[in-house]
């Protein structure tokens, strides 16, 4: 069993990573149904929450069926981050996660996300102050370092643990790498194997097949895997990994009917939550993966990602069922 503070999780839990415009309540619900053990919200700007910016406040929406759920926040100003803790507490999440890893320029240039990797002392001070501010467990998501020449993840992990951080998820790239090249899990394993460490250490980056998840568990000895891009348009990934853990074989491919049904539900939940215009727009990125592998699919994919009217997208789903009836997906 793995524990984040008092939250009990199965051995080698699978966590849905916080992803901007992806890990919203509809998608989190689908991933939870398919075996995600912990889900995280999209990351939320502390400054946006304090200004009461509508988009930031909306991201605080969480539902009972998602638990355990973590709300992830980012920022670099002490006062703002502490005020944000007070605001986030009212949504009653199970975990508050701090994003010290986002590599995007507009976040980094404010010293937040991975930008804080240039100021480890501030990173530790912010974490310590937030731990003291709330009874909820504080966890951290970060990267190996700013660049290859400044990897201090061993020191960072020890210091975060020492000030009360309850778990750390580490992406196996530096900020300089962004999402390029291969994730390096060896430094994450070094953190895990450090005898001083006793909190869970989760690996993130390139867990894109069940075999890779097994490798992270058995070869690198990490406590769990945080899964991001592999789940986009593929909420079944969590179930596929767990099936592989249990049987050593791949789960039967998800049928066309199941994919269409999931895409329908996803779109409808998105519309119910954020209105038709945004619901239609923000679900588009999933369709390529929902229907990946179907030959001669371009005409239908184009409809799904260009139609602004929900009725037209639902109609495209119906056409796919009709035109590609009987199509079987490969493993």
Descriptive report:
With 331 residues, the protein is α/β, with parallel strands linked by helices. Helix content is 44%, strand content 13%. The protein folds into two domains: 2-247, TIM Barrel, CATH 3.20.20.70; 256-323, Non-ribosomal Peptide Synthetase Peptidyl Carrier Protein, Chain A (Orthogonal Bundle). The protein has helices spanning 25-33, 46-50, 54-58, 78-89, 105-108, 120-133, 153-162, 186-193, 210-218, 237-247, 256-274, 276-290, 298-306, 310-323; strands spanning 2-4, 7-9, 14-16, 38-40, 44-45, 69-74, 95-100, 138-143, 168-171, 201-204, 224-227. The strands form two sheets. It has an eight-stranded parallel β-barrel with strand order 3-4-6-7-8-9-10-11, surrounded by six helices. The longest helix has 19 residues, at 256-274. The model has no long low-confidence stretch (mean pLDDT 93).
Topology:
Elements: E1 2-4, E2 7-9, E3 14-16, H1 25-33, E4 38-40, E5 44-45, H2 46-50, H3 54-58, E6 69-74, H4 78-89, E7 95-100, H5 105-108, H6 120-133, E8 138-143, H7 153-162, E9 168-171, H8 186-193, E10 201-204, H9 210-218, E11 224-227, H10 237-247, H11 256-274, H12 276-290, H13 298-306, H14 310-323
Parallel strand pairs: 3-4, 3-11, 4-6, 5-6, 6-7, 7-8, 8-9, 9-10, 10-11
Antiparallel strand pairs: 1-2
Helix pairs in contact: 1-11, 4-6, 7-8, 9-10, 11-12, 11-14, 12-13, 13-14
Uncertain segments are none
Instruction: Tell me the count of domains.
Output: 2
**Class inferred from helices and paired strands:** alpha/beta
CATH-defined superfamily of the largest domain:
Aldolase class I
Query: What distance lies between the first and last C-alpha atoms, to the nearest angstrom?
Result: 30 Å
């Amino acid at each position: 069993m793995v524990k984040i503070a008092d939250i009990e999780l199965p051995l080698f839990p699978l966590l849905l990573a916080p992803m901007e415009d992806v890990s919203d309540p509809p998608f989190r619900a689908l991933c939870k149904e398919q075996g995600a053990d912990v889900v995280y919200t999209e990351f939320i700007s502390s400054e946006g929450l304090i200004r009461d910016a509508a988009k930031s406040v909306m991201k605080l929406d969480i539902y009972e069926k998602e638990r355990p759920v973590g709300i992830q926040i980012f920022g670099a100003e002490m006062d703002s981050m502490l005020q944000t803790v007070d605001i986030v507490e009212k949504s009653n999440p199970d975990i508050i996660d701090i994003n010290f890893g986002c590599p995007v320029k507009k976040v980094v240039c404010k010293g937040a996300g991975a930008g804080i990797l240039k100021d480890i002392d501030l990173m530790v001070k912010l974490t310590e102050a937030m731990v003291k501010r709330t009874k909820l467990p504080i966890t951290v998501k970060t990267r190996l370092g700013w660049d290859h020449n400044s990897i201090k993840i061993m020191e960072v992990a020890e210091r975060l643990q020492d000030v009360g951080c309850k778990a750390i998820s580490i992406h196996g790239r530096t900020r300089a790498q962004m999402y390029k090249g291969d994730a390096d899990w060896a430094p994450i394993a070094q953190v895990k194997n450090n005898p001083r460490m006793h909190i869970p250490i989760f690996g993130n980056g390139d867990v894109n097949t069940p075999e890779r998840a097994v490798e992270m568990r058995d070869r690198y000895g990490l406590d769990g895997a945080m899964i991001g891009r592999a789940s986009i348009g593929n909420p079944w990934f969590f179930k596929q990994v767990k099936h592989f853990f249990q049987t050593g074989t791949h789960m039967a491919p998800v049928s066309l009917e199941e994919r269409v049904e999931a895409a329908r539900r996803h779109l409808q939940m998105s519309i119910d939550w954020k209105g038709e215009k945004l619901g239609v727009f923000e679900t588009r990125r999933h369709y390529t993966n929902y229907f990946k592998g179907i030959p001669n699919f371009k005409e239908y994919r184009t409809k799904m990602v260009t139609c602004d009217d929900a009725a037209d997208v639902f109609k495209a789903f119906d056409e796919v069922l009709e035109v590609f009836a009987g199509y079987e997906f490969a493993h």
